[in-house]
Amino acid sequence: MKTFDLTFKGTVLPEYDSRQVKARFAQLFCIKDLAVIEELFSGETVILRSDLDRKSAADYFRKITQIGGEAELVESTESHAAPGQLTVKLEQDTASTPRIIRETTPGYGMDREIMIRRKGETVQSWPVSAARIDRQRQEALAKKEQQKAEESAEKQRRQEQEQEAIHAAAEEHAKCTKAEEAARAQAEAIRSSEQLERERLKTAHKAQQKALANAQRQTAEEKVKREAHITLVLDNTEQELAKLRTLAQQAEKKAVKETARLEQLEAEVSREAAQDIDNIKAMSLAASGKTRDEIARLEQLELETNRTAQDEITKLKDLEQQSRHHAEHEAAGLEVLEQEIVI
């Protein structure tokens, strides 16, 4: 079964921020040392994982792509560096944090002898010539010079990153300063608005107090007017009641007089009727010699006279009763009117 090595050269995909990609790399591979992160993004080919099966390799490749890195999958049988060059690996075990290690790739460039093992054969070795050794030394010196140049470039890159960080911090400080100035301006605007609102409320309170004083003054004036009107109405009512009492007394006196007159008239009618009866009786006695028809006529006349007298008496009694009823009705009406006026 084929296995794969996961390699990374520090390339960041477009539209991704390098700082965010580094932070996500540190989280994905549990790296706490910032120097290790910087080495991963230095441009060297670093073997992140070795001898991965197809599924694990694809899973790592997908995760690195999702966080913004550009990784490569290489078959484990292929060599990642020329013979004699360094192979950079990310080593991680349970006992320590991840770290970068560099190993020299076996080859002719650094060995005194060439070691070849062929299948089914014994190990063979050949001595290396002096010219090759000199060439190897020159290559080593060139490599050192290249490493120095790379270190200088790395130092320059780090300085540039520091400058970028300082510039970013300055920009952030400027943004914070602008934000603080905007906040102060906003606070000042809020204070001004609050001051204006307080002035408006103060003016409104004064206007409200003035309106309340005017309303109280108008209420007091209206109360005085109402009390004066009530006093006038009460005075008029008392005068009207006095008049009504006088009228009631006069009506009562008039009723008493009318009753006395009717009683006197009744007595006079009774006396006249008695006199008429006596006269009739006298006339009857005087005319005893007349015929029975005359006597009967006289008796009939007596009966009619008695009936007439009785009718007159009845009329007088009815008139007296009506006068009393009228007087009582007048008195009751006056009492009701007096109660209504008092209410």
Structure in a nutshell:
The chain has about 350 residues and is an alpha+beta fold.
> Which percent bin holds the helix content?
55-70%
Give the beta-strand count. 7
Radius of gyration: 71 Å
Distance linking N and C termini: 120 Å
- Given the C-alpha coordinates, what overall shape results? rod-shaped
Mean pLDDT: 79
Individual helix count: 5
Strand content: 5-15%
Give me the side-by-side strand order of the main sheet.
3-1-2-4-5
Structural class: alpha+beta
Q: What are the secondary-structure elements, in order, as H or E? A: EHHEHEEEEEHH
| Low-pLDDT stretches | 107-129
Largest sheet: 5 strands, mixed
Verbal overview:
The strands form two sheets. Strands 3-1-2-4-5 form a five-stranded mixed sheet. A two-stranded antiparallel ribbon has the order 6-7. Strand 6 and strand 7 form a beta hairpin. Helix 4 packs antiparallel against helix 5. The protein is α+β, with helices and mostly antiparallel strands. Among the domains are: 106 residues, no CATH class; 113 residues. The longest helix has 157 residues. The protein contains five helices and seven strands. About 7% of the residues have low confidence.
